[in-house]
Amino acid sequence: MKKIVIIVALLFPVTFFSQNLKGKVIDSKKEAIVGANVYWLNTSMASVSNENGEFEISIPPSDSLQKSKAHNKLLANYIGYGTDTITVKTQTYVVFKLKENKTLNEVVVVGEKDGIILSNKSVNKLEIIGEGELKKSACCDLAGCFETQASIQPHTTNVITNSKELRILGLSGVYNQILIDGFPIIQGLAYTYGISGFPGTLVDNIYVAKGANSVMQGYESISGQVNVVTKEPDKTDKLFLNVYANSFLEKHVNVNFAFKKKKWSNLIAFHTVQPANKTDRDGDDFLDLPLLKRYVAYTKLKYGKENDWGLSFKMGLRYINEQRIGGQEFFNPDKDKGTQNAYGQTVNLGQPEGYMRVGYRFNDVHNIAVYSSAYTQQQQSYFGTTKYTGLQNNFYLNGQYELNYLEKHSLKTGISFRHFQLNEIISFSDTTLKRTYAGKYNRLEDIPGLFAENAMSFFNNKLNWILGVRLDHHNEFSYKFTPRTMIKWDVAKNSIVRASIGKGWRTVNLFSENVGMLASSRDIVITEKLKPEEAWNYGLNFTQKFERQNLTGHFSVDAYHTQFQNQIFPNYDLDATKAFVSNFGGTSVSNGFQADVYVKLWRRFEFKTGYNFLDVYQIINGTKDVLPFNSMHKMLVTFGYKPINNKFHIDVNLHVFGKQRLPNTTGNPSDFKQPDFSKPYQLLNAQFTYILKKFEFYAGCENIFNFRQNQPLVSWQNPFGNYFDSSFAWGPTRGREFYGGIRFKLDS
Question: I want to staple 715 with a disulfide (CB 3.0 to 4.6 A). Which of 5, 306, 654, 723 is the partner?
Fold first, then answer.
């Protein structure tokens, strides 16, 4: 703890003062307007309201106002709203109230919300991916919502069933915490297929934060946090319909209905995916794309607003039923499942879930809230002759009290409780391979916890500091202490420095989180009792925003260092027919560097480029061992064009991946040996969207260059033999893919 206090003390900066005017832009319902233009009349000085409707703008010198004949007039406007003008005299804070235009003969686009916003207000670096950004690609599910940003990389964990995870800082997706409306629902069994099972059309905003984060939602976040906020029923369209199909003839249908009456509002949604045609482009007898059938029903009920005085309530209910079939093209699950007639993998799962938030805000000083969620999942899977059955029950409770004091300070404290029960059964219908890990694996976790987080603001809001701690008691591993601290310093207008330090820990769900091991012929050897994984994360960020009359954008640089105290990473290198699992208490490090530049010109052109350097390794016997399946160098370039009339937009993104180290296969027969490193490759994607009143027509192509890793399965000729391995998929395996769709909406 002393170490943390000393480091935090060193982070305190020298203050910097500037003469600025602050304010807020709201509509007739007193709701914040995001992305409104605020500017001084007859000058080039301007600002844009943030996600809370707030803005800050420099006050021009009095002589420049006189020369421009502005007479201290500050204006604000936004698409679909009128313009409001305030004459500024001695005010230090102003509020614009924009009235919505009921009828418009002509629409002049003067500004719009950027697809990705870097929050100036958040103490940790927070990237907000909005609905506009999500529409730049197909975004059929949550895994496909990150095509145009560099902080998160979707990664395939099992190429046969197309399961995916979201990686941050080059680390496995298990080390970042994924929240749905602030609730930790994607865990354990739900982790393997959870992000693929959440439709993109339900997403309103995605909040991405790397490194140390708040302790309010738990102790698990190590590399970062992804909070997926679903559409609010009182703010979304009355009716939304999306129909999508790709060149493999996989079909998606999404329907959303929203209702509102006084303080009550409700969203009802339905989502389905119907399977593609059977396709085998590389001639290895295995399907390039699994046959996927999914049904999702969802409802969100809301009463009041969290920031208003009085009672507020929010509840979400969802049910998902999903079936995946992959494997050899001639595999028939009805008669071949679990046999050696043909190799196949099947997944059948059902998951009902619910979450609820009840809050009461007494006034601007005192607020209480209770968060609770529960879900259960049943899953039955076959991986060739391996049968896997899982049953998981989760319950989560979090009670919080918030005290706002001394104007700019707030203290949040409370209690939490987690119940986690996972029962797994693994069996083999054929014992030729002599695998040893069959059996029952039962886990029960009850974890009560206490937490407190203090947010402080100093020097006219130039310096913001959050200090959070939590103490949890695990029924098997006793007490765990989790400290985290974050600091933000506004060194100048639109120039921000951030730093963070924090610890995270988690228990391992070995089979559900490493499903690729079950899909191969490797024996899984667990050499000792597995302890919780623990790590410290250190982060530093600099962000510079710039605003000119016809030019806006930002430049950002991140550096993060993650140091594990214990890590569990299956070792594939010792024996090509085995995966060894044990605790690793030696040096295990992830160093991540990212630089981003975003530019928007004349409100028409958007350009963004991001570069990632990832150095992820362990020190074993004095030798640096780079962990497999990580590109040390990765780059993203995006381009977008949208005319002033907003009738269409064109979006293009290019991903460049460097080579990746692959597991050691020197012990394999020569026919089954793999290279030490993958090939570098590029993926180019493009989409065209045309807007016609209430309709949006979109069509695109992914992987335009048609790059494909041919025959990624080792020993595909003999999938029931000793050397069959599906974990060597390091690149795209489907090749070029065309898609098209229609969106229809009725505004609220």
Answer: 723
Amino acid at 387: K
Phi and psi at residue 194, to the nearest 5°: -65, -45
Q: Are 228 and 199 in contact (CB under 8 A)?
A: no
Q: Tell me the torsion sign for CA atoms 672, 678, 682, 685.
A: positive
CA atoms within 13 A on the CB side of 727: 26
pLDDT band at 17 (very low <50, low <70, confident <90, very high): very low
Does 610 share its domain with 502? yes
Whether residue 184 sits in one domain with residue 44: no
For 361, the token pair is 């805000």
Angle at 508 (CA atoms; ends 179, 353), nearest 5 degrees: 40
Contacts of 335 by beta carbon, 8 Å cutoff, 6+ apart = 341
Looking at the structure, do residues 702 and 555 belong to the same domain, yes or no? yes
pLDDT band at 748 (very low <50, low <70, confident <90, very high): low
Residues 253 and 368 in one domain: yes
The predicted structure's pLDDT at residue 62: 64
Amino acid found at 358: V
**Secondary structure element (H or E) that encloses residue 4, with its range:** helix 2-11
Q: Which of 68, 98, 113 is the last residue of a domain?
A: 113
User: CA–CA separation, 659 vs 663, rounded Å?
Assistant: 13
pLDDT digits (tens, 9 = 90+) for 489-506: 999 988 999 999 999 999
Asked, for residue 14, whether it belongs to a domain, the answer is no
Using one digit for the tens of pLDDT, what is the confidence trace for 438-465?
999 999 999 999 999 999 999 988 999 9
The pLDDT value recorded for residue 12 is: 37
| CA–CA gap between residue 724 and residue 523 (Å, rounded) | 11
Q: Could you tell me the residue range of the domain that residue 102 belongs to?
A: 21-113
- Residue 367 belongs to a domain: yes
Residue 86 sits in a domain of what CATH number? Answer: 2.60.40.1120
Give 262's contacts (C-beta < 8 A, 6+ positions apart): none
Q: How many CB atoms within 10 Å of residue 289? A: 21
* C-alpha–C-alpha distance, residues 511 and 422, integer Å: 11
Rounded average pLDDT over 622-631:
90
Average pLDDT over the chain reads 89
Task: Supply the pLDDT for residue 442.
Answer: 96
* Chain centre distance of CA 499: 21
Is the domain of 132 the same as that of 77?
no
Question: What is residue 557's three-state secondary structure?
Answer: strand
Q: Residue 143 is inside which H or E element, if any?
A: none
- Host H or E run for residue 616: strand 605-620
Please tell me the number of Cα atoms within 13 Å of 182 on its side-chain side: 15
Q: Are residues 61 and 138 in the same domain?
A: no
CA–CA distances in Å: residue 221 to residues 45, 372, 569, 702: 40, 19, 17, 32
Domain boundary among 94, 113, 132: 113
Residue 631 to residue 149: CA distance in whole angstroms: 16
The answer to whether residue 2 sits within a structural domain is: no
Question: What is the C-alpha to C-alpha distance for residues 204 and 187, in angstroms, rounded to an integer?
Answer: 22
Query: How many domains are there within the chain?
Result: 2
> Which DSSP category does 142 fall into?
G
Element housing 7 (H / E): helix 2-11
d(CA 280, CA 261): 52
Task: For the chain, give the number of residues.
Answer: 748
Shared domain for 30 and 142, answered yes or no, is no
Q: Is the pLDDT of residue 683 over 50?
A: yes
Q: Residue 64: which pLDDT band, with cuts at 50, 70 and 90?
A: low
Q: Domain holding 224: CATH number?
A: 2.40.170.20
| Residue at 608 is within a domain | yes
In terms of domains, do 97 and 178 share one?
no
